[in-house]
């Protein structure tokens, strides 16, 4: 993409309404624009990162054997009356009446809708296990929408639902989600720690939240510092293996790690004092096992091997896709702007032409652009007639992992300058070598 043809409305001033760094940087980098309280338009740069995050979530869910689909944003109130949550959910639910006077709502989550789909189409234990998920906009009329996309009213969530014959099978699905979430967050350059949590309006007994440690996080968390040494990495996992998934769950949840909702001082005191940590965290996901809560209420049963009708065991599992942009920026930025992890960056590198209009510099930039594109990388080429300083500031603000600077002086010696956004280190290299470094 050539910057002169792109839409990147960066702001020079720091927007006064933004209280935390990720919100400030998303506004300044021209990623989002508030449409109304807690509701945002995703401008091209923000949209690109959102799509990258979504793509990682899809890949990791599919790898775990979960099946993508899409349910609507607007739902009929009838299903929610069946589960009993139409009254329970309270003011966070946006209620709408259509022209025929029918009660509708903008879905804050999808347990009811998916349970209805399940009961309409699945009747036998032979069709289990089954995990369906979608990535769809949700609406929660949050009392205090704030921090930009971190606590929006309209937000993008991946929500998945498992259906199993037995509690044992459903707990395997729970563990599978835990593993897939660890992989998902790590691919985005994040450490998200599973912590024992409270189930809230979803209901159920077993639940973990995934928290990214950050001073601006809204949750207070308590943990054993050893937990931050754990890394899932690129280990191979067989998602069908009950033992393997269980082992990962044990490894990642055996140390003390809880949110304030479930924090227990007596238990915490058993952690050696020098390892006890109190901090703040951003909730980027949560997994639940809730048994037959919805299948009982809504009659979602299957015939077991003996032909008896039994309610299915379920769980639901959510990732805050749009919130993740904020969480990643909170975890990865400096005074000059965002530092995108490679896995989610909107462009792989920036090209800065120091002397736009100079035949040689323009030709070198074009050649570089074409070579990068030919190997499947996406550069953002700053081809505007701006000062070098302004071009560098824009690149630093939008946080691409690499910048290639091209100017007449370097070209005389056959080199360009390759700069890492994260370390700030620069190196002069022939263009081919710079490309090889990025690829
Ligand atoms: P919170 O405690 O932050 O209100 P929640 O526990 O109500 O979140 P869940 O029902 O667990 O949210 O939804 C799954 C995920 O969706 C959350 O872990 C979070 O990452 C994301 N999420 C929830 N509410 C919002 C929101 N208002 N804006 C952006 N993302 C959200
Ligand atoms: Mg909430
Ligand atoms: Mg929560
Ligand atoms: Mg939650």
UniProtKB/TrEMBL annotation:
SUPFAM superfamilies associated with the record: Class II aaRS ABD-related (SSF52954), Class II aaRS and biotin synthetases (SSF55681)
Domain of life from the UniProt record: Bacteria
Localisation: Cytoplasm
Reaction catalysed by this enzyme: tRNA(Pro) + L-proline + ATP = L-prolyl-tRNA(Pro) + AMP + diphosphate
Keywords, sorted A to Z: Aminoacyl-tRNA synthetase, ATP-binding, Cytoplasm, Ligase, Nucleotide-binding, Protein biosynthesis
Catalytic EC class: ligase
Enzyme Commission numbers on file: 6.1.1.15
CDD domains (UniProt xref): ProRS_anticodon_short, ProRS_core_prok
Major location category of this protein: cytoplasm
Keyword ATP-binding assigned: yes
Name of one Pfam family that matches: tRNA-synt_2b
Keyword Mitochondrion recorded: no
Record-linked InterPro entries: aa-tRNA-synt_IIb (IPR002314), aa-tRNA-synth_II (IPR006195), aa-tRNA-synth_II/BPL/LPL (IPR045864), Anticodon-bd (IPR004154), Anticodon-bd_dom_sf (IPR036621), Pro-tRNA-ligase_IIa (IPR002316), Pro-tRNA-synth_IIa_bac-type (IPR004500), Pro-tRNA_synthetase (IPR050062)
GO BP terms, alphabetized: prolyl-tRNA aminoacylation
Domain Aminoacyl-transfer RNA synthetases class-II family profile, residue spans: 33-341
One function term, GO molecular function aspect: proline-tRNA ligase activity
Cellular component annotations (GO), alphabetically ordered: cytosol
PANTHER family tied to this protein: MITOCHONDRIAL RIBOSOME PROTEIN L39/PROLYL-TRNA LIGASE FAMILY MEMBER, PROLINE--TRNA LIGASE
Oligomer and partners: Homodimer.
Protein family according to the UniProt entry: Belongs to the class-II aminoacyl-tRNA synthetase family. ProS type 2 subfamily.
Function comment: Catalyzes the attachment of proline to tRNA(Pro) in a two-step reaction: proline is first activated by ATP to form Pro-AMP and then transferred to the acceptor end of tRNA(Pro).
Protein name in UniProt: Proline--tRNA ligase
Lineage summary: Bacteria, Pseudomonadati, Pseudomonadota, Alphaproteobacteria, Rhodobacterales
Gene name, Swiss-Prot/TrEMBL: proS
């Amino acid at each position: 993409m050539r910057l002169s043809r792109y839409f990147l409305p960066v702001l020079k001033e720091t927007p006064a309404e933004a209280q935390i760094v990720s919100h400030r940087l998303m506004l300044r980098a021209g990623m989002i624009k508030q449409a109304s309280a807690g509701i945002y338009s995703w401008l091209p740069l923000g949209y690109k990162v959102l799509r990258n995050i979504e793509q990682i979530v899809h890949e990791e869910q599919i790898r775990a054997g979960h099946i993508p689909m899409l349910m609507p944003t607007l739902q009929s109130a009838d299903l929610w009356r069946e589960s009993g949550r139409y009254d329970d959910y309270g003011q966070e639910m946006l209620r709408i009446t259509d022209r025929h006077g029918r009660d509708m709502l903008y879905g804050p989550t999808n347990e009811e809708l998916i349970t209805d789909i399940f009961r309409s189409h699945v009747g036998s234990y032979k069709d289990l296990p089954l995990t369906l998920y979608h990535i769809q906009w949700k609406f929660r009329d949050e009392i205090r929408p704030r921090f930009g996309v971190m606590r929006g009213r309209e937000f993008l969530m991946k929500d998945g639902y498992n259906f199993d014959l037995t509690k044992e099978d459903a707990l395997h699905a729970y563990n599978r989600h835990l593993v897939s979430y660890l992989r998902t967050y790590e691919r985005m350059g994040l450490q998200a720690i599973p912590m024992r949590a409270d189930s809230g309006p979803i209901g159920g007994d077993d639940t973990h939240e995934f928290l990214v440690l950050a001073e601006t996080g809204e949750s207070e968390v308590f943990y054993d510092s050893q937990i931050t040494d754990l890394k899932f990495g690129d280990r191979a996992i067989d998602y069908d293996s009950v033992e393997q998934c269980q082992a990962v769950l044990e490894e990642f949840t055996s140390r003390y790690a809880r949110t304030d909702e479930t924090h227990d001082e007596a238990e915490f005191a058993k952690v050696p004092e020098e390892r006890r940590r109190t901090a703040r965290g951003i909730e980027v996901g949560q997994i639940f096992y809730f048994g037959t809560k919805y299948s009982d209420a809504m009659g979602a049963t299957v015939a077991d091997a003996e032909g008896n009708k039994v309610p299915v065991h379920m769980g639901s599992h959510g990732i805050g896709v749009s919130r993740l942009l904020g969480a990643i920026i909170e975890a990865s930025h400096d005074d000059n702007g965002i530092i995108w992890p490679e896995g989610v960056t909107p462009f792989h590198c920036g090209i800065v032409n120091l002397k736009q209009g100079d035949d040689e510099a323009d030709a070198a930039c074009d050649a570089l652009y074409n070579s990068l594109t030919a190997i499947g990388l996406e550069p953002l080429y700053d081809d505007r007639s701006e000062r070098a300083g302004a071009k560098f500031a824009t690149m630093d603000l939008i946080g691409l992992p690499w910048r290639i600077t091209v100017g007449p002086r370097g070209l005389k010696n056959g080199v360009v300058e390759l700069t890492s956004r994260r370390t700030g280190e620069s190196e002069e290299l022939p263009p081919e070598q710079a490309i090889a470094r990025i690829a």
